[in-house]
Specification:
Blueprint (H helix, E strand, L loop, with lengths): L2 H21 L34 H5 L6 H9 L13 H4 L3 E2 L27 H4 L18 E2 L5 E2 L5 H5 L26 E2 L43 E2 L31 H5 L7 H6 E2 L4 E2 L11 E2 L13 E2 L8 E4 L4 E8 L2 E9 L3
Antiparallel strand pairs: 1-5, 2-3, 4-8, 6-7, 9-11, 10-11, 11-12
């Protein structure tokens, strides 16, 4: 080979390597002590067609390390991964009944902007839609998102600020596009009357049912609720045995029988003893357990409360219209707060007409 050609080729290789390192933020995969080659552990030759020099397509590339023991052992044998690496096998999470469809989606494009429904039965989702493979989160350090996202106002973000910005890439509706039926914009609008504090800080008001009180301005993440049902599994909304990828069972049946498992999800943060002791609402126990004397069965928390946010009511009140109907003589379904511990409900449920029904109680 001509010496000038050889020098040009190697100069180009060096330049590409330098640019690769400079383009990747600190604590990226290229800085990981678990990988033996800054770029070559993931990128190989020409790779799969349509992929950025990856040996396998989409999530299969991630599963080379974040998959089974056999897959990791192959990476070790190839000299791409250090033998001491201990990594979670992510496949079982995505094999659960409810998961993000990383193996059933339509494929990721580097220049795409979600949401991109395209009329598909299963919405698009890939590992790289939520994770930047060139940056990792370091244990003990603040979350640093290097992933694209959307704001509550529909503004595209080159770099998400909060975790929910990443979720809104798919859980929103795009102007002029298909309505996904999963838009969370209204639920978590900052102008809403009440919400679990995801987009708006907690009020700091004491809530007797909480195991741990949230300080004023405190925030939750979507993944506090939507995550694996196994506490020893990798964190994040990958998959769960329970609907909506919830961390525990949550019965939404209209005539549910109260027990620790029925509302395992709610009781993760809300003290069951406090709820059934009516410390935050004088009729909690009657609503949840029912009234044997009156012959009424209990009903789910979901009959009266929404888990995300209520645009019109305090205390996450949003009635399930399958359980309640307009009150006779008024035609209204309405909850009105009259102050701390005092309010009225105008509706008809379990055959009883509240027109209105009022309560008053001192917490």
């Amino acid at each position: 080979m001509d010496r000038s050609v050889w020098c040009a080729m190697n100069t180009r290789r060096i330049l590409v390597a330098v640019l690769c390192v400079l383009a990747v933020p600190a604590w990226a995969h290229v800085d990981s002590p678990l990988l033996t080659d800054p770029c070559g552990s993931c990128h190989v030759g020409h790779g799969e067609k349509g992929e950025p020099m990856l040996e396998k397509v989409e999530e299969a590339s991630c599963f080379r390390c974040h998959g089974s023991d056999d897959e990791r052992n192959r990476m070790v044998a190839l000299g791409h991964l250090v033998p001491s690496a201990v990594l979670h096998d992510m496949r079982p999470e995505f094999d659960k009944a409810f998961s993000h469809p990383v193996e059933r989606g339509g494929g990721h494009l580097p220049d795409e902007q979600l949401p991109s429904y395209g009329g598909a039965k299963v919405s698009h989702a890939e590992c790289v839609d939520c994770h930047n493979p060139h940056e990792r989160v370091t244990q003990g350090k603040a979350m640093n998102f290097s992933v694209k996202g959307y704001s509550l106002t529909g503004q595209y973000q080159e770099r998400a600020v909060y975790e929910y910005n990443i979720c809104l890439k798919c859980h929103t509706d795009v102007s002029g596009g298909k309505n996904s039926g999963r838009s969370l914009v209204r639920d978590f609008a900052r102008t809403g009357r009440s919400q679990h504090p995801v987009t708006r800080g907690a009020s700091g008001r004491r809530m007797p049912s909480l195991f741990e009180q949230m300080p004023a301005g405190g925030l939750m993440k979507c993944s506090d609720c939507h995550r694996s049902d196994d506490p020893d599994s990798p964190r994040g909304p990958h998959g769960s045995r329970y609907p909506f990828m919830l961390s525990g069972n949550y019965s939404r049946a209209l005539d549910a029988d109260e027990n620790p498992f029925a509302y395992e999800f709610c009781y993760g943060c809300h003290d069951r003893t406090s709820i059934l002791g009516n410390e935050s609402f004088p009729l909690h126990r009657e609503h949840i357990e029912g009234d044997l004397v009156a012959g009424t069965r209990g009903t789910s928390c979901a009959t009266c409360h929404t888990a995300h946010g209520s645009a019109d009511n305090p205390s996450l009140i949003a009635f399930n219209l399958q359980a309640v109907s307009p009150a006779d003589g008024t035609g209204r379904i309405e909850f009105r707060s009259m102050g701390e511990g005092t309010g009225t409900c105008t509706l008809k449920c379990h055959g009883y007409n509240h027109a209105p029904g009022s309560y008053q109680w001192t917490p």
